[in-house]
Amino acid sequence: MAPAASALERLTARLIKADPPRAKSLCVSLLGDAIEPHGGAIWLGDLIALLRPLGINERLLRTSVFRLVAEGWLHAERQGRRSLYRLSPQGARNTAHAALRIYQSVEPPWDGEWTLVLIPRMTSNGLAERTELRRALEWEGYGMLAPGVFAHPRARPAAAGSILESLGIPDKALVLAARDLPDVGALPLAALAEQCWNLQELAGQYREFVQQFAPLEKTLADGGAGAPAAAFAARVLLLHRWRRIVLHDPQLPAGMLAPDWPGHAARELCGRLYWALFDASEAHLASLAGHDGEPHFRPLAAEALLRFGGRQP
User: Fold this and answer.
1) Is the pTM of this model over 0.85?
2) In a 3-state reduction of DSSP, which class is residue 260?
3) Which BP terms from GO are recorded (predicted)?
């Protein structure tokens, strides 16, 4: 084994030991990042083989896959003694929605408009409904301005409507657009950023990400991506850790963040590492999931090459 591959495997193993990934969450990361661009389907045996180097045994993976089927993420197709798992329409929508936040490279300009979601006090929403709505909005990046009032400077209003629809309460909340009024001397909404979002904790997570994965960049620079299997394991772990942080980031406009916001450096590092690992990791994926000309394993979608701003020359 080449020294670089050995070093890559040792570093990946240390990262896994320090923070073992959960099987179900890791499976979602792999499906969205590596399988969806190839058609979104994979044999269970191939999925087991891909995740085994990351410490996920067959029993844990089978349990995770069954749960993803029950939750509507996957469809199972039995073909003889083999099981093919395919992203469902819901799973494909969830994956596409998350990809907008995971792979974005350049922060789009902000037009100053906020999306507000208000739950009127006199509606018949029960406590369970309100709790579920709050969790869904916070996952989408909304902050709570006041009881029953949630705000986000970038979220699409349609996404808030979809959340209400999915919870069965489209007629029990208001979705509004808002702007600060100039020259009235009032407190701007942006001044509440620290109150609505735990930016200090998020900044700490980004700094930890850089601390954990910066050594990987040196390892790759010293000897390339190494063996394809090692590159694939490192790519999955990298993307999984990144996804776990960035999907909890409200991705506020730059003007609401500190000038040295660590999320910027973390995203740049993630993009560089992702592309450094990409070709070798794709070779490993094709050798397992695309062996013998499997018809469900399609050529890589062109959109995948635009992730993190696109492959660097």
Assistant:
1) yes
2) coil
3) DNA-templated transcription
Return the structure tokens found at 101.
């936040």
**Chain centre to alpha carbon of residue 68:** 16
pLDDT digits 0-9 by tens, 205-231: 999 999 999 999 988 887 766 789 999
Using CB atoms within 10 Å of the CB of residue 313, give its burial: 0 to 12 exposed, 13 to 18 middle, 19+ buried: exposed
Per-residue burial over 268-301, b = 16 or more CB atoms within 10 Å of its CB, e = otherwise:
ebbbbbbbbbbebbbebbbebbbeeebebbeeee
Tokens of 100: 């907008």
Residue ranges covered by each domain of the chain? 113-179
Q: Which CATH architecture has domain 113-179?
A: 2-Layer Sandwich (3.30)
- 228-275: per-residue pLDDT in tens? 999 999 999 999 999 999 999 998 998 888 889 999 999 999 999 999
Structure tokens belonging to residue 8 = 């890559």
